[in-house]
Amino acid sequence: MNGTVLIQSLIGGLGIGSIYALVAIGYSLVYRTMGLANFAHGNILMVGAYIGTVFYVSMHTNFIIAIIISSILIGILGMVMERILRPLGKMDLIYMMLGTLGIGIVLQNLAIIIWGTDGIAVQYPIKNEPWVIGNISISPYTLVIICASATVVLALQFFLHKTKLGLAMRSSAQEKEMSLVLGMNVNLMNALTLGLGSVLAAIAGVMVGPVFYVSPDMSSSVGIIGFAAAILGGFGSIPGAIIGGLTFGVLQTMVATQVSEWSQVIAFVIFVFVLIIKPSGIVGERVVDKI
Amino acid sequence: MKNKRKSIFKGMILSTLAVLALTACNSQGKSNTSKSSGSSTKDSKVIKIAQIGPFSGNAASFGNWDNQGIMLVVDEVNKNGGIHGKKIEVIKIDDQANPTVAVNAAQKVVNQNIVAAFATPLSTGTLATLQVFDQAKIPQLTAGQDTSITTKGSKYIFRYNANSAAYTKTAADYIVNKLGKKKIAIITNSGAYGKGERDSFTKALKEFGVEPIADEVVTPDAKDFTAQLTNIKAKNPEVLYMGTENIQMGLITKQAIALGLKAQRAGGSAADPIFVKTAGVENAEGTIFTTQYIPDADEKTKEFNEAVKAKYGIEGEFHIAKAYDGAMMLVEALKNAYPNLDGETVAKELRKLNYSGITGDYKFDETGEGTDKAQMAVIKDGKATLLQ
């Protein structure tokens, strides 16, 4: 691997990796707060991508506005999901998890009924003339994805650490009983967390549309890798999700430059090895182990 | 201790769920038999043919185009009284572009008194179902381009299309001898079509004394080609040959341009309207490719174009045109075979045909190849235009 290929694939890997990171954060947020692995997350991402794309492609709304509309609708969907899952959670966490799986399948099939299976091609929202530096050319849209993802993550951190609502969400995640005693509406906090996680998925879904292709199988292609990234970094940890997402993106791209057909196989073999050596993930903490 | 055991149990359930989630995501397509037969008496009033192909998933357009071409002919024949008074009925089955599903579908239809089957527009599905139709002695018509389709010894396979070798040879000849380009990079996928493109294009290049300077293979469901295109870019090729289906070809084009890869882009017959839409009209501009059908090339194609527009409200298109020719030939053979509508006679009649259609002149040989003609075309203002 020469230097040019190395740097070029590093940039490409970071681009797709930041998408995985956003998806992984969604998984981790929900897991940390509710102890729940949300199996509908990938499907939510796909529905979010479709909603944003329909606004952007068919109704010619501005790309950023399309992202915002999709985020709002998907955020509401996430909160509704908590209401549906709440009675299940009272029985056992496992039922709740089955519930997310069911919701995921419903969303998947609804999407196929509404939008069909053909998929939609999305054009870049900016003029995507590559910037050339020496032998390396950078696709501006890749940089847009990286910067936008970083901004979203910073805004999320600010929200969780500096606002009252964010602090309330964190406290309800850490000490559910104590928060209840203090008169906090834990159900609302759970709903907000699911909503917030879903918004991240929607943003990731709409942003990746122009690079890939918006189709129903996005939920497995992007969703599953996002899930794996969350676990690789340390399930439940936000920094872990970021590291996991970027690692997966870079790993996949770098392996693909060497042995293209094997990129998924090798990326997941490395994933398994990391987990064998460090079962709690790269930055995993035992504290969040709620199950 | 008890707690620990409980958490292990939960862990097991969790991993089972994860596997379930994975499979649930993959089983999105449905197989539906739209017009399955009720009674199948020997002297039934209808002639049944089957069409197996993808109607859901990424490759759904291929199944739909095939169907549109076939139905254009079938509806016309039925409107004019059918074949010697018998109407044609099409049994349509979705194989989700999955060879296993295609084989099941084939096994199902061969027991439904069909006289011929269109199976399938994709090479992978065609290869998978070859044996079923050969054993049942039912003529199988395909648009699949993989060269190996006609080398497996089936006596009932008929290709209403040129094979990969014919296409890629035309492309290689044009690129090497006419454009004088020698630094050629190839990107293909590991599906049957991609594999056929890779093998035959490399072989064709070799005949002209050229070795590809880069040869990347991706999986058929890949959507991110940054890594492969980065490798290709490092070799600085003059031509990028894309041997994948339409959507992947569009994504490769888009991502290649985003990476600043300036090579002349070239491809096979996958450069269709879906390719242009996926890549974007601007990016698709100037892509050279091989085809058998150029809209508005002559009176015949103009007429066909009008018919497609009137019936489906879309532009006439290469895949629809191929299927149209395939169905025309089958109808001709059925007319000639009547009243002996068994597979053997129909196959014999198909071989006797000398048919001149909108995608070329067909004469089936012993192996089932109908034509070896292909043309070079270029995308101009988002549309296919003849080059040679």
Automatic annotation (TrEMBL), chain A:
Keyword Transport: yes
Pfam families in the cross-refs: BPD_transp_2
Localization per record: Cell membrane
Statement: the UniProt record of this protein carries the keyword Membrane: yes
Database matches in InterPro entries: ABC_transp_permease (IPR001851), BCAA_transport_permease (IPR052157)
Keywords linked to the UniProt accession: Amino-acid transport, Cell inner membrane, Cell membrane, Membrane, Transmembrane, Transmembrane helix, Transport
Segments traversing the membrane: 6-29, 36-57, 63-81, 93-116, 136-160, 180-204, 224-250, 262-282
Topological type in the membrane: Multi-pass membrane protein
Family per similarity comment: Belongs to the binding-protein-dependent transport system permease family. LivHM subfamily.
Family annotation (PANTHER family): BRANCHED-CHAIN AMINO ACID TRANSPORT SYSTEM PERMEASE PROTEIN LIVH, HIGH-AFFINITY BRANCHED-CHAIN AMINO ACID TRANSPORT SYSTEM PERMEASE PROTEIN LIVH
Protein name: Branched-chain amino acid ABC transporter permease
Species whose genome carries this gene: Neobacillus paridis
Taxonomic lineage from the root: Bacteria, Bacillati, Bacillota, Bacilli, Bacillales
TrEMBL record, chain B:
PROSITE patterns: PROKAR_LIPOPROTEIN
Signal sequence segment: 1-21
Top-level taxon in the UniProt lineage: Bacteria
UniProt cross-references to InterPro entries, sorted A to Z: BCAA_transport, Leu-bd, Leu_Ile_Val-bd, Peripla_BP_I
Leucine-binding protein domain residues: 47-382
Family matches, as SUPFAM superfamilies: Periplasmic binding protein-like I
Keywords (A to Z) from UniProt: Amino-acid transport, Signal, Transport
Short name of any one Pfam family annotated for the protein: Peripla_BP_6
Family: Belongs to the leucine-binding protein family.
Name the UniProt record assigns to this protein: ABC transporter substrate-binding protein
Species annotation: Neobacillus paridis
The organism's taxonomic lineage, starting at the top: Bacteria, Bacillati, Bacillota, Bacilli, Bacillales
